Amino acid sequence: MGRRSNRLRPLGALRKIALLCGWLLTWAASAAAADFTPTEMYQPRELCGFALKVHPQAIEHPAELALCLDELESQLQNIRRVVPDRPLAKLEQVPIWIEWEVRPHGAAEVHVSAGWLRENGYNPDKLYAVEINNCRNFVEWSRRTQPWMVLHELAHAYHHRVLGSRHRGLRTAFAEADEQQLYERVQHVDGRYERAYALTNVDEYFAELTEAYFGRNDFFPFTAAELQTHDPVGFLTLQGIWGPPVNRPERGASP
Hints:
The protein is 55% helix and 9% strand.
């Protein structure tokens, strides 16, 4: 009995350690989950047919928030002017969350992983939503080089909410562009030549080309005409996904 008892003691200790580790992991997950601001604390707004959720910290900076909302409105109006009805209706279902400064070196993003949100202490309601994670950077970067930043992020949301992450046409077009090195060294809007952001992965390929297809991208090809010549497979793929761009009059404009 004595020898058997001696063997059981270490197992009991290990069991206690395992239980303690499990408790610590649970506590850490709970603490991380508690880091985010509950959805009901955000101020709901509507802008150009899109639902906004504005963080209280952003509201505490009225001048900067006003600039952010002005820039957002301008971009949403441009999106509504050129995107066809059917995909536009899908884009309008994507909520836009506005934070004051979640990321010091960020501007906007889309969250497509529930696991990532959970593990990083983010509000799970942000899944498949656009997040402006830094009001000031969003305005500065948009006005400097990325006037279609919001469409870029909405394209990510459309990719995962509507098309599916494994869309065959996009994967084929991306693979061909990569194989042909179409984006290995292209011009940036600031004049530099470098590897295009579109080569990051198929997600960025779709979002970057969508900017050029409907508006203007910060990497070559900058416009739809340049895209059609430079990457005809990519152009036709986007045309099949989005349909031909439209040209609606601006709201309030004379007919």
